[in-house]
Automatic annotation (TrEMBL):
Its EC number is 2.6.1.16. The gene is glmS. The active site is at C2 (nucleophile), K606 (for fru-6p isomerization activity). This is Glutamine--fructose-6-phosphate aminotransferase [isomerizing]. The lineage of its organism: Bacteria, Pseudomonadati, Pseudomonadota, Gammaproteobacteria, Vibrionales. One of its GO terms (cellular component) is cytosol. It is found in: Cytoplasm. Signal peptide: none annotated. Residues 287-427, 460-601 form the SIS domain. GO terms for molecular function: carbohydrate derivative binding; glutamine-fructose-6-phosphate transaminase (isomerizing) activity.
């Protein structure tokens, strides 16, 4: 989704702004732009369709100087990707503005503003905000007042930053539904939609809350809440690594993040498991009481996080004996659901800013859930702030749009949580708890072993390069792992992929089987293996092309039409996490062969902050 960077400083800020945009590229975008007030207070604006590199080249060849500026990467919602629709948008000669989010009443506002004599240079919803601010400034005493009056007329979600040529050392920002952080410097201040954008200039941040409007100058940051009252927001020291936005030795962020999984998982588990127990208190204050009383769990999430929730459902019921439902957030939020007694709501999210998941949390709070917990990767995100309990996944910054380490750390976090829950409810005895915890301790080393399959999987990927479709199969908790495998393949290689619970094959999808439809099967030894083997036979009998990921105990033999990738044997508890790795590697290598944009696949964004 769109990225925002702003700066008020004594030095020239063009480089800071463009570097900030580069660090936000992972969010997904189609155009970029910057506007800076020079020393004579002239508004200089440069916009480009395409990558930040195009913008950087344009700024390099025609340098713009000045200490106050705003910049933006746009992910098109209203109006095609084009230079005219790229931000910053302007009103008259004085106002420039960037915006992240969607203004739902933009058509109504557009008509009103047209009647008032404004003309529009773009098809965006954003431009109405620029003209509204311009209009309000005709009567307001300050830019702050004009933005507050404008914000009151907007419906939808926004994070917006406004600059006025006549008040050159001030930026005014407003947040409602789209995250914004203020970065504090010495004699200079910054803002961005993600702290990552500013790590090269500051490590001190304030997170704006819903409804906040703030004015930022070189020396001051004044924040006002929804009611216009001055408020103080806590200053946080960022613990993100400076190099989080660099690929290091890797070719892509996705590759780096796949390889970071052993260390990410060590972080996830640190201080949460002892030798043989899960430390319940590490989930948070009051967790023990909540766990004892939980009778049902409702998980709500989107995309990869939904697949993690689907996997965890098997654990909740099989290990902790607690019923569990999992639903896609965009469905949950519009469904007339019945809340079960003593039901715990769990939102799962890497970013903590996914609009549908956040809306589901807010709705659930009115619907009588006993408590709302989030399992999330981003500290200070909206989901973390608005939930009763936050159990962080600690994956570290994930930049590749395709989630990898976010998924496996979500699974490890869930497994710890399920174990704690089962223990509190007296369903998991110390012996079982020890078995699970022992498996968790082995997990990072086992993931290293799975990563060692990189080369053979790279070779296997050749088979997929000319394919247009693929089918992923699994049973039990490996069905969601097949779902995640299929999501990875489709999003980065653009090969159409579907995942099925293997038992469903004969109810329809079997009709698709032919030599052009590779079928990937996740088939470790477990109670369902014999059933799965029958499903595999159904595919073989119809000339299907099979790729079976299994362990040596599973007893598969390679033959015509069936390749076996023999993985090491791992404990049943961690096997879903382990089998995720070959799925990630396969999609990565297929995408490499196809030459797609691995880290920023077309049409996708990292944090989906709009509905
Ligand atoms: O930040 P979230 O986990 O809430 O994001 C939800 C989905 O947009 C996300 O998981 C998406 O499906 C993945 N990045 C795809 O790999």
């Amino acid at each position: 989704m769109c990225g925002i960077v702003g700066a008020v400083a004594q030095r020239d800020v063009a480089e800071i702004l463009v570097e900030g945009l580069r660090r936000l590229e992972y969010r997904g975008y189609d155009s970029a732009g910057v506007a800076i007030l020079d020393t004579e207070c002239n508004l200089q604006r440069v916009r480009r369709l395409g990558k930040v590199k195009e913008l950087a080249d344009a700024v390099d060849s025609n340098p713009i100087t000045g200490g106050t500026g705003i910049a933006h990467t746009r992910w098109a919602t209203h109006g095609e990707p084009s230079e005219a629709n790229a931000h910053p948008h302007v009103s008259g000669e004085n106002i420039a503005l960037v915006h992240n989010g969607i203004i739902e009443n933009h058509e109504e506002l557009r008509s009103l503003l047209t009647e008032r004599g404004y003309s529009f240079a773009s098809q965006t919803d954003t431009e109405v905000i620029a003209h509204l601010v311009e209009w309000e400034l005709r009567s307001a005493k300050t830019l702050l007042e004009a933005v507050q009056k404008t914000a009151a007329q907007l419906e939808g979600a926004y994070g917006t930053v406004v600059m006025d040529r006549r008040d050159p050392e001030r930026l005014v920002v407003a947040r409602s539904g789209s995250p914004l952080v203020i970065g504090l410097g010495i004699g200079e201040n910054f803002l961005a939609s993600d702290q990552l954008a500013l790590l090269n200039v500051t490590r001190r941040f304030m997170f704006l809350e819903e409804g906040d409007v703030a004015e930022i100058t070189r020396r001051e940051v004044n924040i006002f809440d929804l009611n216009g009252e001055p408020v103080a927001r806590e200053v946080h020291e960022s613990n993100l690594q400076q190099d989080a936005a660099d690929k290091g030795q890797y070719r892509h962020f996705m590759q780096k993040e796949i390889y970071q999984q052993p260390s990410a998982l060590i972080n996830t588990m640190e201080g949460r498991i002892s030798n043989d127990t899960v430390i319940v208190e590490s989930i948070g204050a009051g967790a023990a009481d909540i766990l004892r009383n939980v009778e049902h769990v409702q998980i709500v999430a989107c995309g990869t996080s939904y697949n993690a929730g689907m996997t965890a459902r098997y654990w909740f019921e099989a290990l902790a004996g607690v019923s569990c439902d999992v639903e896609i957030a965009s469905e949950f939020r519009y469904r007339k659901f019945v809340t079960r007694p003593n039901s715990l709501l769990i939102t799962l999210s890497q970013s903590g800013e996914t609009a549908d998941t956040l809306a589901a949390l807010r709705l659930a709070k009115e619907k009588g859930y006993m408590s709302a917990m989030t399992i999330c990767n981003v500290a200070g995100s909206s989901l973390v702030r608005e939930s009763d309990l936050a159990f962080m996944t600690r994956a570290g910054t994930e930049i590749g749009v395709a989630s990898t380490k976010a998924f496996t750390t979500q699974l490890a976090t869930m497994l710890m949580f399920v174990t704690a829950l089962g223990k509190q409810k007296g369903v998991i005895d110390p012996k079982k708890e020890k078995e699970i915890v022992t498996s968790l301790h082995q997990l990072p080393a086992q993931i290293e072993k799975a990563l060692a399959f990189d080369k053979p999987i790279e070779q296997l990927a050749e088979d997929f390069a000319d394919k247009h479709h693929a089918l992923f199969l699994g049973r039990g908790e490996f069905y969601p792992i097949a779902m995640e495998g299929s999501l990875k393949l489709k999003e980065i290689s653009y090969i159409h992929a579907e995942a099925y619970a293997a038992g469903e094959l004969k109810h329809g999808p079997l009709a698709l089987i032919d030599a052009d439809m590779p079928v990937i099967v996740v088939a470790p030894t477990n109670d369902l293996l014999e059933k799965l083997k029958s499903n595999i036979e159904e595919v073989r009998a119809r000339g299907g092309l099979l790729y079976v990921f299994a362990d040596s105990d599973a007893g598969f033999e390679e033959c015509e039409g069936m390749k076996i990738i023999t993985m090491p044997k791992v404990d049943e508890f961690i096997a879903p996490i382990f089998y995720t790795i070959p799925m990630q590697l396969l999609s990565y290598h297929v995408a490499l062969i196809k030459g797609t944009d691995v880290d920023q696949p077309r049409n996708l964004a990292k944090a989906v902050t709009v509905e």
